[in-house]
Input
Amino acid sequence: MVLGPHSLSLSPGVGYALAAAFVWGTYIFVLKRYFSDYPGTVLTVVVNAAAVAWYLPVAVPRVRAAGLPVASSFGAVEVGIVVGTVLTTAAAFLLFLRALDVGEVSYVAPINKVVPVFVLPIEVLVLSQRLTPLQVVGVVVATLAVYVANYRRGSLLDPLRKAATARPAQLALVSAVCYAVSDVGKRLALQELRIQPELWVPTVLLGVLVVVLPLALREWTPVRGDLLKFAVAGAGVAVGEHVTSLAFQQAPASIASPIINTQAIVAVVLGGIVLRERAFATRLVAAGLAVCGVGLIAV
Output
């Protein structure tokens, strides 16, 4: 399905992508403030389990009511798209954690957030997606905004220079590519394969949980004392995944991805306001760039 420029400007997918950015940005801020003592793998497993527990009671009746019209027609290609999307999502996350383990966040984080730069050519080449020149500029500006929001110190180009020689930066770059493939896979699953969001969301959450679980068990940390916080975080993830799925269901990945990735700007702006983190002026510049980029995308 190829959407024309006019339909893109009117698509509710842009609105859902903006909502997802705010949900995920708030979630990232909450994780940083309240869950910093937990390993990323443990956090992912417990939060995903909580999200599934919240989501299934709502999703199951809707799936039953709508039926499964696509299930009987699924072949190897369709199953491959679903499995590949789940695996690339999990791989992207694990590669990013590994990059953080062996490198500095100052150049790992910005590189990991250039996902839309890879989504755009993949979707254009593989799915023949067409964007207006203004929308392409918007994707670039929004991606630059997220890059600046994650920038810490030194030259603005240092993280990219390190990507040529430093292994942590290279891991972050491969992680970004995996996230890009995952975003295009979401678009395929939700648009071309017409999988219901109510079926897709638990599939992704459980799939990532299963892939990450063996690593989480190696560094398991007791979570009993914070079960209520994990339950609340799980509810946020359930909402975030659902709204994200609606965005990818109704807009091209090259449009939804850069908007959703502005979540990083929401998180750092919240951090600057609430936690009084440094370099707040830079974060505000990034926020301004993001608004410009999203505006161009939605034109």
